[in-house]
Every structure is written in C-alpha cells, then in structure tokens.
C-alpha cells in the first residue's frame, strides 16, 4: 500500500545542564560557558540540511528538550524562531513547548520565552519533598518549583505541564501521593508522572538506591491514577495525564507514528518519503563539541525502517496510548495491511491483554500493566 506522510513535528535538543543528575541518561552535559551564538547557527545549518531531505511540509508542533533548554536566553529563542520561520512553514496554531528547570528561571525569562513564541511550558519538578530532591541531585528545592510554576502562569503560560517522578529512594505511598497533590494544587493543564527507572550509564546504575518494591509501586500507581482522575486529569498514555483537550500534541504525534525532524546534538528523526515508499530514521552527532565543529555533517547514516519493523514500531508507540492507535492510521503510515494481523493477535486478545475497538488496537488495563510482555510477544509474532 502507498504511504501517506503523517504530520511533521520538530524537536530541538539543547544538551547542557547546570549539573548532571544521577538518574539521567539523556544527552546532557554539565555546562561550561554556553556557546549560544555558535549553537544557534549550528541548529539552523542542521535544519537546512534536514529540509533538503524532508522537502517543504508544514510543521505542526515544536518541542525544545534537553538538557536544560531554559538555560538558553530569550534572545536565543527569538532568533532561533525567526530563523525557523524563515526556513519552513510553521503552522499558525503550532504547539511550541519548552522544558524548563526550576532554579534556572526567573519571571523576566519566562516573559521573554513567551514573547519568543513559546506557548507551552514543561517544568521538571520531580518532587516537592526536599529530601527526595536532594537524593535526586536536583539543583532546586520545592519552593523554587512552586515559584517557577507561579511565574510561568503570570507570564502567560496557561498551557503548563509538570513532570513528577515516583518510586523514589525510600519514598512511601503517602509521600508519592502528596507530591501529586501538591502538583495538582498548582493547576497545570498536564501532568507527566514517571516511575524512576535505573538506566545504564548513570550514577544510580553503578550504585542503585533502595526503591519501593514492585507490589507497593503498583499500589501507589493505582492510588495515583485514582487521585488524578478525581481531579479531572485523564490518563491518555502510560505516564501522561491531561485536562480534556490539552494532551501534548507533539508527543501524541510520536506515539501515533508521526514524522519528526530532530535538530541539535544527539537528536533523533523519523521521516516518511512517500514517493520512495521509504521510512527513514537518523540521528545527529551526540557530543556537543563535535556537533558544533561541523553541524552540516552532523547527520549520521540514514536507517530505513522496513518489513515487520514498521508494524512493530507503530505498535511499540501506539500501544502506549490508553485509547490505542487507529488501524487505518497504522496502515496509512506503515503501508502494512493490518487485516493480516487478525490471526496473529488472537492469543493476546484471548489472554485479555489487547483489544480491537472501533477501528483501534489498544492495550486493555491489564495489558498496559504488562506492556513490556505484550511488546515482546508482538516482536516474536509480527
Ligand atoms: C528530558 S528530561 C529533562 C527535563 C529537565 N531537564 C529536568 O530535568 O527538569 C524530562 C523528564 O524525564 C523524567 N526522567 C528523566 N530521567 C528519568 C528516569 N531515569 N526515570 C524516570 N523519569 C525520568 C524527568 O521527570 C524529567 O523531567
Ligand atoms: S536537569 Fe534534566 S536533563 Fe539535566 S541532568 Fe538532570 S534530569 Fe537530566
């Protein structure tokens, strides 16, 4: 089947932080002097190279992630968006998100980000418990997080996400729920509630902290989901909760096998070339100094996604959504004939782990609790 190109998003990576957190495996590096001007020019060169590959397509969402994007100045973003708008058609109602860390912001900076065209903010709070913030190596305390959220609001960011983590070292269920309650009290439009995972190549991997056991983690999750639902935050993805209609459009595009260009050190991209029946993945040079040295050559080899990998990747992402993913969308975006899956998926359906409803394939509640097992079965079946 011919491919239909999905919506296109733009991801911009800023790779610097004040200090590296012991649990973090993102491409982030302790900052020295921030090379703002050089990075700005590098991002635009990088974007131009990618646009030669992508052709002219409107961009529907932009996400500036890190690292700590709020370390860069409002002037950096003003110039960056002027450069982006000069090079591609940014949709009039594009969602433009920036990740901000408490402890790196003040009121004037938020106003500057808003003036630069950023219309959604994601604040990395993690916890409101100062002991846990210290254990996580964060540079801020709880009051700085409350201040950041309040100042962001005052600067006009009415579309606001807070990141909170649970399963923290020594954390009780009451403490985890108290973190959520304090987040809810700030009335964000969106909450991301992540379980702390121990990733290779982190300080926590080398000396693992004591986390709550599996059973109490599962109990805490159930209690947290109920608390969020009572406050009208609807769970639409494994870790994402939103007020109705305020889901993150950018992340939704990832989960629905949409296209994205990733610019900046280490950024990943996925691009559909319908005329060639091709789906490509590629990544940029990871180390900031190597990236800055030659941004025009920062794109590593193009990796075509073919055959069963297409179905698997679409399901790997789409099954994270509580409503699942439309079979028609999968067919349009992968070229796969999903009617052929019926026999293959019978076992997972019979075991009550996945369901087909109204043209969508989705995990059941139990399936979502055992998502890794479901994906393993799919990897062996498709
Ligand atoms: C790209 S990160 C960084 C955002 C921002 N620099 C910050 O730390 O506030 C986005 C979010 O991922 C979550 N995160 C990072 N590492 C994690 C881990 N090992 N386990 C669970 N969540 C993690 C944190 O909640 C973090 O805010
Ligand atoms: S501030 Fe955020 S991106 Fe930076 S090291 Fe910590 S978790 Fe990672």
From TrEMBL:
Biological source species: Alcanivorax profundi
UniProt record similarity statement: Belongs to the anaerobic coproporphyrinogen-III oxidase family. HemW subfamily.
Keyword Transmembrane helix: no
Presence of the UniProt keyword tRNA-binding in the record: no
An individual GO BP term: porphyrin-containing compound biosynthetic process
Predominant place of localization: cytoplasm
GO molecular function, one term: metal ion binding
Location of the Radical SAM core domain: 2-237
InterPro entries given in the database record: Aldolase_TIM, Coproporphyrinogen-III_oxidase, Elp3/MiaA/NifB-like_rSAM, HemN_C, HemW-like, rSAM, rSAM_sf
One Pfam family per UniProt: HemN_C
Cofactors demanded by this protein: [4Fe-4S] cluster
PANTHER family with a match to the protein in the record: COPROPORPHYRINIGEN III OXIDASE, RADICAL S-ADENOSYL METHIONINE DOMAIN-CONTAINING PROTEIN 1, MITOCHONDRIAL
Gene: hemW
Keyword set, alphabetical order: 4Fe-4S, Chaperone, Cytoplasm, Heme, Iron, Iron-sulfur, Metal-binding, S-adenosyl-L-methionine
Job of this protein: Probably acts as a heme chaperone, transferring heme to an unknown acceptor. Binds one molecule of heme per monomer, possibly covalently. Binds 1 [4Fe-4S] cluster. The cluster is coordinated with 3 cysteines and an exchangeable S-adenosyl-L-methionine.
Subcellular location per the Swiss-Prot or TrEMBL entry: Cytoplasm
The protein's name in its UniProt record: Heme chaperone HemW
One cellular component term from this protein's GO annotations in UniProt: cytoplasm
Domain of life: Bacteria
